[in-house]
Amino acid sequence: MRMRWLASGVLGVAVLALAACESAPGKPAPGPEVIAPSEVKDFDFLYAQNCSGCHGPNGKGGAALALGDPVYLALVDDTTVAGVVTNGIAGTMMPAFARSSGGMLTDEQVQIIVRGMRSKWANKNALQGAVTPPYAAPEPGNAVRGEAVFATYCASCHGPAGKGGAKAGSIVDGSFLALLTDQELRTLVIVGRPELGAPDWRNNVPGKPMAPQEISDVVAWLAAQRAPFPGQPYPGGAPKPAGGNK
Questions:
Q1: Within a domain: residue 173?
Q2: 114/83 Cα distance (integer angstroms)
Q3: Is the Cα torsion angle 206, 207, 212, 214 positive or negative in sign?
Q4: Residue 53: other Cβ atoms inside 10 A
Q5: Does some domain include residue 67?
Q6: In terms of CB atoms within 10 Å, which of 11, 125, 134, 183 comes out highest?
Q7: Domain's final residue, options 52, 86, 121
């Protein structure tokens, strides 16, 4: 009997000790475990953390191209979007996000972003029966012809030389052109910037959509306006240092 009471006493002390540990100062309160970054599978969270800063909180309204534009999503396929997210765009502000390219996202998370963009923002009726021009230029454009194309489709907003007009700013600004590849320029010409009032390739001139070759030609003309050394603010040479020539 004495041994039974002794055993019961030891068990009671152990229970009290465990209870004290459970309420010890500094012990985290019960709640959900913190998820490792690589295990996050929610599109809204992944997009907000990785994309919204440039492309806008809902795929629109950012400094960069609107990813929530249904016309853009009709132009590009999932493989193209995944490639851009994975590898970035060299020479631009678009970094690589996939781990395989030095970023933080797993391949699965890249696919979650791609699928989420399409499920939330794509619209099968966005083109209203029109056929989009090729995403990539099938052959190089002609800058000489492109100047005439610009005059027809773009000058009414961007001015006769592309340096800005009553409706839109300069499209030949050196800093702007230095930040975009020819493919990005082509994408902008095709899809426009609807959130900024810039129409897509169908609506620059009502009833006269741009032909694929015209798009290639105007992109060639825009590319030809790039400064040889972008970012140099002194076309006449750098100012002399204070204190005279040294």
A1: yes
A2: 10
A3: negative
A4: 12
A5: yes
A6: 183
A7: 121
Q: Please indicate whether residue 8 or residue 210 has the higher confidence score (pLDDT).
A: 210
- Does residue 9 surpass a pLDDT of 60? no
How many domains does the chain divide into?
A: 2
Neighbours of 203 (CB within 10 A): 15
64 found inside a domain: yes
In angstroms, the CA 202 to CA 134 distance is 14
Q: Rounded distance, CA 169 to CA 177, Å? A: 13
What pTM does this model have?
Answer: 0.79
Residues of the domain holding 65: 40-121
Q: Is residue 13 part of a domain?
A: no
- How many residues appear in the chain? 246
**CATH code at position 147:** 1.10.760.10
Rounded Cα distance between 68 and 60, Å, is: 6
Q: What secondary structure letter does DSSP report for 165?
A: -
